[in-house]
Predict the 3D structure of the following.
Amino acid sequence: MKTIFDKLNGNCKNSARVSDKVIDLIDKLAKNTNLERDEFLYVLNNITARETGHLYKRAYEVKHIHYQNRVYLRGLIEISNYCKMGCKYCGINYKAQGVERYRLTIEEIVKCCQIGYDLGYRTFVIQSGEDSYYSDKLIIEMLGFIKDKFSDVRITLSLGERSRESYQKLYDAGADRYLLRHETASRRLYEHVHPSFMSFDNRRKCLSNLKEIGYQVGAGFMVGLPTQTNEDLVEDLIYLRELGPEMIGIGPYLCHEDTELKGNESGTLEETLVMVAMARLTLPKALLPATTALGSLHAIGREKALKSGANVMMPNISPTENRAKYEIYQNKICITDASDQCRNCIEARIVGVGHEIDLGVGDYIDFERNEEK
Ligand code: 5AD
Ligand code: FES
């Protein structure tokens, strides 16, 4: 039973009055980026296929003001699938039995960066399960190697929850950005999809620490999690507005049959696109990826996201032999491809929908690194 976007999922038709109000609220958000809680909720409760086109168009226009048709590319390296966390939706959490675990050495990571650099990427996203093996010392060493070898790149870390001291040390050692999705801004839902040893408050604390230190920060959430409501999704938008992250990752929840949440419905393409577009209107300058999860859910899911406000893509540059092992959800795309194949595939997709690739570092507009310590 779907609990979000009742009208969108139920193929309902709105009366002219309701439809007009949804359109007016979308236009209001596009103009001054501010809606009250109940106004956000009205949009999500009442939007139907008749109004989504308008929403996507507005989101595209707002993106265009700041970024035109440029799509920034980030080379993604999945360095380890060891994870001590227990997110109930995730196929590589510590309980998952069928996973063959791997981790890359610094040499292997730098090799991936070289491949990515040669393909033109100037941002490397170093992502991992929560793996204590990667001590501050090791990551600092890795950052040093990468920054020495490639002077004109940005490094984005995505290594999960760490202490403020650790985040500070990694920032001082040259990390530029940090991705840590908040997953959901609803405490009830967070607690429903995480074990009791994981903390809603700590996750938020991590995000505010990252912000204070001076990282370009990426938050984000999943759409279609079991028991998620439109009220929960409104909280996500309001939380994002308060936090003001530079990057926002939004993807559909994709049910993994080897997790505690097996047997649940996945999120849908339209639900996710609505939230991508709403996020664009709420934070007009955000760097918003067309996520791999959307591409895995639908053959042209990422292209549709570009048309609905997204402006980043994250081609995989992990060693091909490890890709299938980083199965946070099933039917993930790109697991048999080599990095240069992903590069060509992604460019063709971007160009195919009237966009162009931008191979610059792609910092957030207005971003200035905070060098004070
Ligand atoms: N479906 C979709 N997204 C998932 N993630 C983890 N498991 C799943 C899943 N089953 C997302 C989480 C995490 C990011 C790396 O991937 O939001 O932060
Ligand atoms: Fe949390 Fe994988 S166990 S994202």
Summary: The longest helix spans residues 49-67. Residues 7 and 48 are 6 Å apart (CA to CA).
